[in-house]
Design goal:
Blueprint: H1 2-22, H2 26-35, E1 40-41, H3 42-49, H4 53-65, E2 70-74, E3 77-81, H5 96-106, H6 115-140, H7 144-151, H8 154-164, E4 169-175, H9 183-186, E5 190-197, H10 200-210, E6 216-220, E7 233-239, H11 248-258, E8 259-270, H12 277-281, H13 291-300, E9 303-312, E10 318-326
């Protein structure tokens, strides 16, 4: 037993030293700051720092091996991101010290080298992503329901959403509502349906269908910063929206913020896949999700997972459904 404890102590010391060495380099500290804004590919970091790809790849590898960042593959792209508090490495090791170390560094971000320059470059990369996504949805607003029917089969998961939403709610938020395809099915569940989408064209299409309905309120807004009061919604539906979001955890924190205590979040998305055509044809930023990753994000945002299931469709895609409940009295503080 003593030998095992000694080995464990030595391994912990080695990881500690490795992490401290990793943050002793200015470029790697800048990378940690960049990743505090979301997940970025090697090409993104190259563009932001204006350095060679081999150099950036080496720095990312050092940070990954030290446990300070994590990576996930999205088709042909590999994204790097900061681990969440409940994250674990592939070896099952948790990241509390590494997260504390990164948070300590970022608490002095005002003094970090090239901070303002890097933030401006990060904003440009995120704006480019947003413009691409908005441009796509603005173009297809009128045909969106037909496109979804062809690929995502909404009827398959719509019944799951309706079964898991509470009845007689005061207000249900339809996150990324598009042209409002789900709204008629939500109306019997609540006194008011609030539809929010970042695409102006999508909201215009929804208003043409529901603009005269006093039970429906429609807003154009960024899903990462909802113009809603804390604890204002009884339930939230996020149906096939998260894979279009640059930084999904930010949206999940917002959902937790606007939900009342014990409020329900019905999340529907694609199980992780490798169909690159979805990136080009549907402006997908994420090629689906692994259940463990979504569960981690939800747990960190103050949710209790009530159910996770997968639905096989007639197409090549599997649909992931998660019912989560906001912990009573939970106060949300996003990273």
């Amino acid at each position: 037993m003593a030998i095992k404890e000694e080995i464990t102590t030595k391994l912990a010391s080695k990881r500690l030293l490795s992490a401290l060495k990793a943050v002793s380099d200015e470029t790697r500290v800048r990378i940690l700051h960049i990743l505090s804004f979301g997940a970025f590919s090697v090409n993104d970091v190259v563009e932001i720092l204006e350095m060679g790809q081999s150099r950036i790849s080496r720095h990312l590898k050092i940070l990954t091996e030290a446990g300070l960042i994590q990576t996930r593959r999205e088709g042909s792209l590999v994204y790097s991101y900061l681990p969440e508090s409940s994250s674990k490495s592939e070896q099952g090791t948790s990241f509390p010290f590494f997260i504390d170390l990164t948070n300590l560094i970022l608490s002095y971000k005002e003094d970090l080298p090239e901070r303002e320059r890097d933030q401006k470059k990060v904003s440009l990369v995120l704006e480019t992503r947003e413009k691409k996504s908005k441009g796509f949805f603005d173009r297809v607003a009128g045909d969106w329901e037909t496109l979804q029917e062809e690929i995502l089969h909404p009827k398959v998961y719509r019944s799951w959403i309706l079964e898991n939403l509470p009845n007689q709610s005061k207000e249900i938020l339809d996150l990324g509502c598009g042209p409002g395809g789900l709204i008629p099915y939500l109306l019997p569940k609540a006194k008011r349906i609030l539809g929010v989408d970042s695409s102006q064209k999508m909201i215009e299409a929804a208003k043409s269908a529901f603009g005269n309905n006093e039970s429906v309120r429609l807003l154009t807004a960024q899903l990462e910063s909802l113009p809603l009061e804390d604890n204002s919604c009884d339930a939230v539906v996020g149906s096939m929206v998260l894979h279009h979001i640059s930084h999904p955890p930010a949206v999940i924190y917002e959902v937790s913020r606007v939900l009342k205590a014990d409020g329900i979040f019905c999340l529907v998305d694609l199980v992780k896949h490798n169909q690159e055509m979805m990136r080009d044809n549907f402006a997908d930023l994420w090629l689906g999700f692994e259940p463990d990753l979504l569960e981690s994000w939800l747990t960190n945002a103050g949710f209790i997972i009530e159910s996770i299931s997968e639905i096989q469709t007639d197409s090549i895609f599997k649909i992931l459904t998660i019912k989560a409940k906001k912990k009573g009295g939970h106060h949300v503080h996003s990273n």
